[in-house]
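3.2 Worked example (two chains)
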Amino acid sequence: MRNLDITTLRSFVAVAQNGGVTRAAGYLNLTQSAVSMQVKRLEDLLGLDLLDRSARRVSLTPAGEQFLGYARRMVELNDEVFARLTEPSHEGEIVLGVPHDIVYPVIPKVLQRFNAEYPRVKVNLIASYTADLKVQFEQGECDIILTTEYGLDEGGVRLAEMPLRWIAAPDGQAWRSRPLRVAFGRRCRFRPIALRELEVAGIPWEMAVESESDRTIEATVSADLAVGAMLEGTEPPHLIRLGAQSGLPDLGLQLINLYVSHADAGGLAPKLADMIRQAYLASYDRPAEAAE
């Protein structure tokens, strides 16, 4: 009898979804050698090469692409069975606050995984501004929050350090205009940073739009009516990052931090927080650091 092992399937799916063994190992909380060994065991069982290891970045072979759908469904079904039949006591609600601009790409993957393991637990996602989220957290209205900020407050964990970049429309010319037309939400945390750096660089500017809506800001930049700023890697596919050749000043680095409430008696918030930490480690290959 030939039986597929869920552990090897999970490692293969993690490698495929995270783009490599290193990130998959961080996501699974395993060593790289353990993940590689499990994938190799799966290939030996099937008698197929599932991964193309000839390039710097691991990719799927045609057989691997065909097998991925089956493997993913088997892992999801396995997790669903265990979640529904062995952990019925995990019920409740977690309020998770995340700044608008860092909801993607990590949080949807985490919510999908958490729901598979704890289907009876409702996660209420709040997308807001860092300043508002910190107030809500202090008032006990959020169980977990992520923030974008320069420093790290007591009790927080640094998940990633990311550059703040100027963004513009592809093949656009707005970045050449003087005064430079910029688009930021009224309460955007990056607005004062960008405007201060423009002032220091001696670049005149004018606000192209005044809005509370991130969609409005994004549409204005996409229409080549202005430039904006986003954390590297969070910009939508229809916008591009401007490099040093644009002549615009460097905007420095921002921290993505995690704060977890100690008031969660059911212990559910720490479980979700652990998944978020693992996902960021897998996505950005940077170890989390806690504040003293």
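3.2.1 Second chain
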Amino acid sequence: MEKNKEFCCSDCGMQSCYRQEKKFPELCVGEEVDKAEIDSIKKLYKTDPIVSKLSNAAAEIEGTYYGKLTRVEEIIAFARRIGVKKIGIATCIGLIAEAKIFVKILKAHGIKSYCAICKVGSIDKTEVGIPENLKVQKGCFEAICNPVLQAKLLAKQKTDLNVIIGLCVGHDSLFIKYSEAPVTTLITKDRVTGHNPAAALYTADFYYKRLLKNQDI
């Protein structure tokens, strides 16, 4: 390891924290955490009603259906366990077809939904300070992605759980920041890999070697 480099979980090749079947590394991040802080977090999982409900539901789904359910099914199972009546969908305009299919699936399972597309509000990019040269198609009206309004519209609908379908990097961050309901993701956008961003990691030593080079992006 590089001299003076701060040790973190990506430096560890043991992952003893999972089942404690191996010796913890000398610089383990978890081992350095103050016991009082660990105890306070454990208490949070037990006593905070929201944290407890969400974490227990997630653990139940993992333990019961590990490797058996698709992400779509897991979201439905999770929604049922936390008492969701209405799911909000924040979708990219480029994945509206997928969002419509998801709506049909939710309806088939008796779950209401409300969808807000990223271009809602139809505000030209230049109106919020984005220069014309940063538009995808210059010299014409081009609406901003509007995750803040998406979040506010779903809040007005009093959704119990919000699902992201393909929001851009950064726009998803803003949506999560402004969402009043808990958020999970169904599709993570990657225009190059057909919305499978892990593909770039799996092929970083071959097809995507450029990722391992320090270059301007």
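3.3 Remarks
The CA atoms of residues 6 and 142 lie 44 Å apart.
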